[in-house]
Design goal:
Helices cover 42% and strands 14% of the residues. It has helices at 11-22, 35-43, 45-57, 75-86, 140-163, and strands spanning 3-8, 27-29, 62-67, 90-95, 132-133.
């Protein structure tokens, strides 16, 4: 049976890229939400969004942050990372900027989202512990194949790494 994971990503620009990673089939991801579904959730305010995220993370031992151009330091991305870490889940990131979107466009590489989260008010950055993978290709097809080949091992590594901290 495939491992269950939670995918964290910036919805509007990276939904198409995230769906490509979800469809790899090696892992069982959280159910995608439609634009209308997300609008309904967000109309409920911060409490509704937090409740939805919490329910989606439940029972999943790992959070995979799909990093696009503007993923880093977003309110809900930060919440998902912190929640996953505090819940002792494996956490890691994958740069997805070279996967094509629905318009067949790639995007610019974004910042590492784990650089914006620290252990305590003045502690080290989470990026000192959490791994981020950057496929070594520029071609979308090669990037996809690289993620497909490695994502299962990355999840297991993140879960094992988290057990050490």
């Amino acid at each position: 049976m495939a491992r269950k994971v939670f995918y964290s990503f910036h919805y509007k620009p990276d939904n198409w890229r995230a769906s490509q990673v979800r469809n790899i089939g090696v892992l069982e991801g959280n159910e995608p939400t439609s634009d209308n579904g997300w609008e309904t959730i967000t109309k409920g305010g911060d409490a509704a969004i937090q409740k939805w995220i919490d329910s989606q993370m439940s029972g999943r031992p790992c959070a995979v942050v799909l990093i696009g151009t503007d993923t880093a330091n977003r309110k809900w991305i930060n919440y998902e990372i912190i929640k996953a870490w505090n819940d002792k889940k494996g956490v890691f990131g994958i740069y997805v900027h070279y996967l094509m979107d629905s318009q067949k466009r790639q995007s610019l590489k974004g910042s590492n989202p784990f650089d914006f989260i620290t252990f305590g008010p003045s502690g080290p950055k989470l990026s000192t512990v959490v791994k981020v993978y950057e496929p070594p290709f520029l071609d979308s097809t090669q990037v996809y194949a690289y993620i497909q080949k490695n994502i299962g091992n990355w999840v297991e590594t993140a879960i094992a790494q988290r057990a050490l901290h």
